[in-house]
Design brief:
Blueprint: H1 3-20, E1 47-51, H2 59-74, E2 78-80, H3 99-104, E3 109-117, E4 124-133, E5 142-149, H4 153-169, E6 177-185, E7 188-195, E8 202-203, E9 210-216, E10 222-227, E11 234-237, E12 243-244, E13 253-258, E14 264-270, E15 275-281, E16 288-289, E17 295-301, E18 307-312, E19 320-323, E20 326-327, E21 335-343, E22 346-355, E23 359-366, E24 373-374, E25 382-387, E26 393-401, E27 404-411, E28 417-421, E29 426-432
Amino acid sequence: MSPSTSLRVALALSSAAGLAAAAPPPPDEGALGPFVVTGTEAAERVTRLAVLPSLSPELSDVVVRSVVRRDLELSGMFQLLKDDQAPAGDYGFEAPVDVAAWRQLGAEVIVKVGARAAPGAAGHVEVSGLCYFLETGAEPVYQKRLTVPEVEVRVTAHRITDALLGAITGRPGGFASRMTFSARWGRHFRVMTMDADGHGLTPVTSPTATSIAPVWGPGGALYYAESKDYAPFQLMRLGSPPVRLALGAPGSVYSVSFDPTGTKLAVALSSSTGSSIWVGKSDGTELRVVSTTPLATHPEWTPSGKLAWIGGSGKSGDQRVYVDGKAVSPLGFTAAAPVFCDTEDGVRLIYSVAVGGNKQDLVMSSETGKGIQRLTQNQGSNTSPACSSDGRLLAFFSTRDAGIQNLYLMSLKRWKTQRLAVQSGESLRWAPLPPTGTAP
């Protein structure tokens, strides 16, 4: 019998013995901290924002306005006025904004965006963005026009939103970004990508292989673990064709992460006795073990360059979040999928924990595990948290809607949760798009 087979048999016997014994009392969920109670728009002070309508038949204009309005809705920061509330007037590309009329409707912030074919530049579009604070007068606080290729209209609209959020709040948004996750698509799990607003869901890996644990790496490249015909998972970089990275250590790849500088790689590898975290150069060379627990998975770097992972022995409740070798999540709750969010209030650690009823909830704490708060409670099973680059939004999968898993966004400022996409999955990651030469 091989060492790996012996390990599986031992674990099976251990589990059977555990089932035969009296079940231990469930851990006290008070250790997960208070539940973040959300308010209502009637009780909160929420900025009333108007996105001006447009009657233009040009597709580029429709795309820009719909993308910006959708982004602002998903931000969870505003009460958007309905389109049918718009006062009569001229809403053409060059038309001035009737600030007085919108003030009478109670708008506090006005956003006007639009697009049209760029004069004298075939295949290009002129995009415009304006923002007014009604309390400061009739002059815009943000104003920008730029010309971009037609194929960049959608991403330019996201960049306009990010710039508008910067003008309104002092902190640019994170919608010019993309998500990736693994989901069953046909016979196998495949890696999926999509925009931050749920648009453009696309399987990007082979339909004949099992692909899991995707992550954005150096230069914006997409990395993932792939297995064919039940062979060990190997680290791949997406391309035409995909490229396999030869790692300087043996084992099947569970998951991988790159540090903020893109120069270090952390990878979880299986062994005959469990799994461990290895750290080395971003090309997979000079790897060395850094974990100390029998099982170690899901490496994740903090914004300051520290390394976190899930470590334990495999016993129920002892799989905890470790940060630089120290356990920081509550004992007794099986933890999973740590992520670090660089919020306006500082870096926050968010992860899932197993609770009663075979469900998982999301909790949040400081980078070192202090001040724990519960983000979900009695709302289905919630998994795979991922944070926007501006630290204001948390994406995660949840079964809160009739037990069916979908993808949701939660505002980490107002705690408002909205469904982003009708999609199930796991190993969710969220990263900004690589910068371009055009900055709205």
